[in-house]
Design brief:
Distance between the termini of chain B: 47 Å
Order of helices and strands of chain B: HHHHEEHHHHHHH
Helix content of chain C: 25-40%
Radius of gyration of chain C: 18 Å
Oligomer: heterotrimer
Strand content of chain C: 15-25%
Radius of gyration of chain B: 19 Å
Number of domains of chain B: 1
CATH topology of the largest domain in chain C: Rossmann fold
Chains: A mainly alpha, B mainly alpha, C alpha/beta
Number of helices of chain C: 9
């Protein structure tokens, strides 16, 4: 099922904490640069897809413009660091604030749009930001991109080894999941679900559409920007092609859809499936075939399991006991 | 004055090309309620089809365009059967992302098969120019324009004059009523999609002598065509043609006036504004945006 | 408490409501009756803010509501149900009601308490954890009422909640409405079940083809010639 208000319970919490602790230990076991790097990439995409899911799953608008927020996060912290020597740790919040504002505006203006109209509006918004990133060369150096100088040190989120990025990425993912859970348990969560289920009924119960959607969009955008800052600090080079480009928006949505739109952990599971497949096929087969795999994966998932892997698993879980009962009767 | 006329001529020629893509896209939306993200990939396939026939056999690109029609049609049918038919009545996420997946697949299949190299078709008429009253009009551009306009006219006649065309329009207006009237909706979907993507492929063949050919060329077209169909009102054929000519003019003049990048930026802002203020476009029917386009 | 002043609604050239005016006093049970397509639900939509009238205004406790949307009107104390029920199908029955309680500033935990109490009151407590979409129509209609009640309205608009109920259930519904009225709630009720509604209504507004053709006490209205003409072949007492 798509997001329902979360029920309290110690079991999921304990399980979540266990997984979190196990993930903390990963860098002690995985020391190979390729695999740890892959793991960090998975964490980042998991965070991105989880953030996307707050507007895509909870608020019900399938966005194809989230690369804009990712780019805003990456460029804000990087430019603040390069131009004003402000640490990306602070730039993180500056980028989050700007993206949050942009998300609020986008949420407000796309409020009444449904289905394909919403998708096209977010797509256009993403392209606007991309065109700005490519062409405002005085600020962004355009397609040449920006390099973060080596040796900025931990105070500037720049580390020599990969391990710190693993921990930051893990923190980022934990934050986005925690925010998702908090929203689900809050007033806002109930309102968003009510609006998604039936907007007219929700409004007549006193739910204010504008507030809810703007807030959800802003939170989603802010978290996406955090991941952008993280990406910039991790790769230490950004350009429009790797941050604001349409393909990035597609991939964010793709990861969430494969895992399960509207499920709490689906986007993270999606990243665990999609990113390794993508990275490994890219390494073995090259960029074109890797993206072909993405295309096929996207088609197959949306046709066969529109609620993603998690949705399909829930469906299976729902069927199993029934089948056992049936066989007992037979 | 001369410059103005030249810009208008260029703009109309360009708009004519967009029109053929836009009509197909808007029809698919109007009838199937599917936004076909893969539309321009069929154009790209048409370009490559013509390129390879020309390259390997030396057959003239226009003749090659005719040759590829049955191939495009068959491929359109295949995509319809495997993907599009399965999205009808499916959740929104399926409707939007299935064609996006197809777009990614086709683009990168082309990239894998033919590399990212930029290719071009050169014929003896590639550089040929007519100079009526001092204007410079590219002959292949004019031919493509004429064929595109004829095709558009043909589609319009088909829709408004034939029984089948009327069935398509009936389905576009009210799916349930069309079913009750005994129209085979699935078959209408199949024909609409297949004819529309074949038209996109033909358009690709027509512009093969004009444009560079590479796997990702669809990307630069599809977004412009989205702008056009939204301006014209998603689902409106006449709106699509008018908006295509308009956007052609804007694109041709903006290049002179404010530089391509900022021109592009401004028309996306206009696009966004239109979506927000008047999502039904300037020629579309009100309400589609509220019903989620279903 | 509620005043509808010369409200007109046009739908693309079709006049759904034509210069309708009526008032309801606090604590009253008012019925809005009329044949199908008379414009009753349209009038409900105008009062609850779902649609803006072409002209005319709605006043609630003396305040002009013209500039307020449905959410604000709900928060002012106007609750409503929908004739074509609109449950949040994917949610449990309890969570449906929680949404209503939350808009009144309760915390999530408090809202769960309110929701359960409201459901108990409507004899739906045992269904709290069922999925709303799984309920039969009669219970979904009751859920509409529960949800609206959880918003602690002062004026409640009920749109055909008795359709499809058996006689016992109709009596239960009537008893509940009377009980809530004792607690100070005001009602405006659209109902096709004449026999039932005439038992409790103190004021009846009759709508036909968008026009109010009669209003007054049930006794006055049932004697009205125009009303009898509209309901010809369908005597009011036994319909």
């Amino acid at each position: 099922m798509r997001f329902r208000p979360a029920q309290e319970g110690w079991l999921p919490l304990a399980a979540g904490l266990t997984v979190f602790i196990l993930l903390l230990l990963v860098p002690l076991v995985v020391t190979d640069v390729f695999w740890l790097g892959l793991g960090i990439t998975v964490l980042m995409w998991a965070a991105l897809a989880t953030a996307w899911n707050i507007s895509g799953g909870l608020a019900g608008g399938l966005s194809l413009g989230h690369a804009a927020f990712f780019g805003i996060g990456a460029y804000t912290s990087t430019l603040l660091y390069l131009r004003l020597d402000i640490s990306p740790w602070i730039g993180l919040f500056a980028g989050g604030a700007i993206a949050g504002l942009a998300g609020a505006v986008l949420g407000a203006i796309t409020l009444r749009l449904r289905g394909p109209f919403f998708v096209l509006a977010t797509l256009a918004f993403g392209i606007v930001i991309h065109i700005i990133a490519v062409n405002w060369r005085d600020l962004t150096r355009g397609s040449a991109g920006l390099v973060l100088p080596f040796g900025g040190g931990p105070a500037n989120m720049l580390f020599a080894g990969l391990e710190p990025y693993w921990y930051i990425g893990l923190g980022l993912l934990a934050l986005t999941i925690a925010v998702t859970l908090a929203i689900q348990r809050s007033r806002l969560g109930y309102y968003l679900i009510a609006l998604r289920e039936d907007e007219d009924a929700a409004r007549c119960l006193g739910v204010r559409v504008v507030q809810c959607k703007v807030l959800a969009s802003a939170i989603s955008a802010m978290l996406t920007a955090f991941a952008g800052t993280f990406y910039a600090a991790y790769i230490q080079y950004i350009d429009p092609a790797s941050t604001t480009q349409f393909e990035i928006s597609v991939q964010i949505a793709l990861v969430a859809i494969v895992g399960g739109v509207g499920t709490t952990l689906g986007p993270a599971v999606g990243a665990l499936i999609v990113i390794p497949i993508g990275e490994i096929s890219r390494a073995w087969l090259g960029g074109g075939p890797a993206l072909m795999v993405y295309g096929v994966l996207l088609i197959v998932i949306v046709l066969a399991a529109p609620r993603g892997v998690i949705g399909a698993l829930e469906w299976l879980a729902g069927r199993l006991p029934r089948r056992q009962k049936a066989s007992r009767h037979a | 004055m001369q410059l103005t006329l030249q810009i208008i001529a260029n703009g109309l020629l360009l708009g004519g090309l967009y029109a053929l893509l836009a009509i197909g896209l808007t029809l698919i939306f109007g009838v199937l309620r599917v936004v076909n993200f893969a539309h321009a990939e069929f154009m790209m396939l048409g370009m490559f089809g013509v390129y390879w026939i020309w390259r390997l056999t030396g057959i003239d690109p226009y003749l090659a365009t005719i040759i590829i029609i049955p191939l495009l049609f068959a491929f359109g049918l295949l995509c319809d059967r495997l993907i599009i038919q399965r999205t009808i009545g499916a959740p929104e996420v399926t409707v939007v992302f299935a064609t996006l997946g197809l777009s990614i697949l086709l683009q990168n299949a082309a990239l894998t098969a033919w590399t990212a190299d930029i290719r071009s078709v050169t014929t003896h008429y590639t550089g040929m120019v007519l100079t009526p009253g001092g204007l410079r009009i590219s002959v292949p551009m004019l031919i493509s324009f004429a064929v595109a306009m004829l095709a558009a006219l043909g589609l319009w006649l088909f829709l408004s004059r034939t029984f089948y065309g009327k069935a398509i329009q009936a389905v576009a207006q009210n799916r349930e009523a069309a079913v009750l009237m005994g129209i085979n909706v699935r078959r209408v979907y199949m024909w609409t999609f297949t004819v529309a993507v074949t038209a996109a492929g033909v358009m690709g063949g027509l512009i093969a002598p004009l444009y560079s050919i590479y796997p990702r060329i669809g990307m630069s077209f599809i977004v412009t065509v989205f702008v056009i169909v939204v301006l014209g009102g998603l689902g409106s054929v006449s709106g699509a043609v008018l908006a295509a000519l308009l956007i052609g003019l804007v694109e041709a003049s903006a290049g002179y006036l404010i530089g391509t990048a900022w021109a592009e930026l401004s028309y996306f802002l206009i696009f966004l504004a239109v979506l927000i203020v008047r999502p039904q476009g300037f020629f579309g029917r009100r309400g589609a945006e509220v019903f989620g386009g279903r | 408490m509620l005043e509808v002043r010369r409200v007109t609604v046009d739908f693309q050239g079709l006049r759904a409501v034509d210069e309708a005016s009526f008032r309801i006093e606090a604590g009253e049970i008012a019925a809005l009756i009329g044949p199908n397509g008379a414009g009753k639900t349209t009038l409900f939509n105008v009062v609850s803010g779902m649609i803006r009238p072409t002209s005319g205004e709605v006043l609630f406790e003396g305040r002009d509501l013209s500039r307020l949307g449905p959410a604000d009107r709900s928060r002012m104390g106007i609750g409503r149900t929908f004739q074509i029920v609109k449950p949040f199908g994917g949610l449990t029955v309890r969570d449906n009601v929680v949404v209503g309680a939350l808009t009144r500033g309760q915390s999530v935990a408090e809202a769960h308490g309110t929701a359960l109490a409201t459901l108990e009151r409507l004899n739906m407590g045992h269904l709290a954890d069922a999925r709303a979409a799984s309920l039969p129509l009669a219970l979904r209609k009751r859920l509409e009422v529960a949800r609206a009640l959880a918003t602690t309205p002062r004026l409640l608009l009920l749109d055909e909640i008795m359709g499809g109920l058996n006689p016992t259930e109709v009596n239960e519904a009537l008893a509940l409405i009377s009980e809530l009225r004792q607690e100070g709630l005001t009602f405006l009720i659209i109902e096709h079940n004449m026999q039932a509604i005439m038992q409790i209504a103190e004021r009846v507004v009759v709508l036909n083809q968008g026009c109010i053709i009669a209003q007054g006490t049930p006794a006055e209205v049932t004697q009205d010639r125009q009303v009898i003409a509209v309901y010809l072949g369908e005597p009011l007492e036994s319909a």
